[in-house]
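Sorry to interrupt, but I need a hand with the structure work. Could you write out one complete protein record for me, on any chain you like? Could you add the entry underneath, on a fresh line?
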Amino acid sequence: MDPMQIAWHLMEGTNDIITSINKDGTFSYVNRALMEKLHYSESEIDTLSIGTIFFPGEQKKIKAIVTKDTHEIISDVQTIMVTKEGEMLHVEGAFSPFFEGGKKVSTIALFRDISKQKKMEEDLERERNQTEFLIDIMTHDLANIHQEIISMLDFLILNEDLPNETVGIIKEGISEIERATRLISSVRKISIVSKALPDLQCMDISLALLRGAIQARLAFPEKTLKLVTDVEHGEYFVVADEYLVDIFYSLLHNSLKHSKKKDVTI
């Protein structure tokens, strides 16, 4: 079989859209897949152009590619086509310039239908936004509820008629509520980080360590933390994000949690 016939059969047999776009925006060739996906008949081929089959907001980008006098092949271009009825078709494709006698006469374009992929991405983004919204509500409301409970228990402790044993139980309850509040805060931080990485900045290790130690002490009011370090303020700096404090807090928290002593030296 003649190579040209093989090429023609391949272009007509594929489900990918293949076109030859002239510099004036008209088409010298469109394959079967384009007509089927955009719902045009053979009698309408001559009426097609960039302004006909591409979404208005995408036409300027496509025109810039096909009129550019260069041998460069441009790939991974995402754009939007429009069917005869006005429905959008998301596609991804590549543009290859075609030259004759050293002059660019057209651009061969191949597009792959990615509409299903786009819909899945949009559905995933919508579900992610809904999840983040619910997390925001949950963390905000639960934190407020916990604070109200702590306030009531703090007020209850002021009652001088309460036995010491009861006061101790109430204080343990307050400690557990504060721990739950910190857990909620951690969930919120994970949600924020998963959405977008925080900005890096120059941070003093000493300050981050001390802030982590303060938070760790608050988590275990029944224990005493003695932090021994030769890291001085203003001595060592690192490029990190705001959650460097949480790293030190986690390390010190685990040390306090798993130590059987009430006075813990780190």
